[in-house]
Amino acid sequence: GLAALLSTAAHADLTGKVIGFSQIGSESGWRAAETSVTKSEAEKRGIDLKFADAQQKQENQIKAIRGFIAQGVDAILVAPVVSTGWDEVLGEAKEANIPVVLLDRGVDASADLYLTGVASDQVKEGAVAGKWLIDTVAGKDCSVVELEGTVGSSPAINRKKGFDDAVGATANIKVIRSQTGDFTRAKGKEVMEGFLKAEGGGKGICAVYAHNDDMAVGAIQAIKDAGLKPGSDILVVSIDGVPDIFSAMVAGEANATVELTPNMAGPAFDALDAYLNGGTAPEKAIITESKLFTQADDPQGEYDRRKGLGY
Ligand code: GYE
Q1: Ligand 1 centroid vs 214 CA: distance in angstroms?
Q2: Which of 293, 276, 204 lies closest to 241, judged by CA?
Q3: Which of 207, 253, 281, 292 is the most exposed, fewest CB within 10 Å of its CB?
Q4: The pTM is what?
Q5: pLDDT tens, 188-202?
Q6: Where does the chain cross the membrane (predicted)?
Q7: Cα separation of 56 and 81, whole Å?
Q8: Model confidence over 61-85: pLDDT tens digits?
Q9: Which atom number of ligand 1 is nearest to the Cα of residue 239?
Q10: What is the DSSP letter of 200?
């Protein structure tokens, strides 16, 4: 009867499920937003979320995942800091029949070791940034410096590939220096300072491509400290679409960003709902949108809009 129907309906969701989340850390504004959005998405679904911050260390993530397995959680979310070294611990989760969903980064492990992943097409993000620069410099010679993400992470590998392949096909744009800034503002500033010193104060640098906005914001500070104008003397293009890159655009100090949604958990929880309650697993990875924003796209409005989105 109705009671039976209601009781099955009540279970066609994740109410009361215990889900562990091994988060990388809080290295960037985007990462902090992903954490707050994940917590609010869990709250909305009545999930008991167990949160573990790894301070960017893979061994802390592996420890946290082992803790979740010992606790007998219903599912595990992992944002994998680097793409290698996961086979063993993912095998242990599989042994324990605990589904794993990857968020925002990929792993080299075989796909049968996790239920699915929710991430952007990171090669495409690099290509979109590259195409923006190609269109913007319109055939003029342009020496670019590149601030790479965390060494060995899938976004750093893929965003480098997408951008370098795009600009590598032109005769006028050349990547003259490339170094990791570990996705942080501080490191991005420090590495950009090094690039400027190595390039005669930056006169020969036409653009900086940063694998995330936080490193771009650090680079903007370094460019200003060197007496140059970011956004005009040196073009600034990056990825994430965090509020602070839009306020830099309003000030004319940044030029373009490729948006990355901080809401990877919503699709992840939907996939877990279908799997735990209906036994169905999504076909393959769940790919989120990559949209270009420039100074022409109402940056103040975009800043205001994001302030309400968990940033
Ligand atoms: O772009 C950056 C964070 O894994 C795609 O990690 C994510 C990246 C994001 O540090 O801000």
Answers
A1: 9
A2: 293
A3: 281
A4: 0.95
A5: 999 999 999 999 999
A6: none
A7: 6
A8: 999 999 999 999 999 999 999 999 9
A9: 1
A10: G
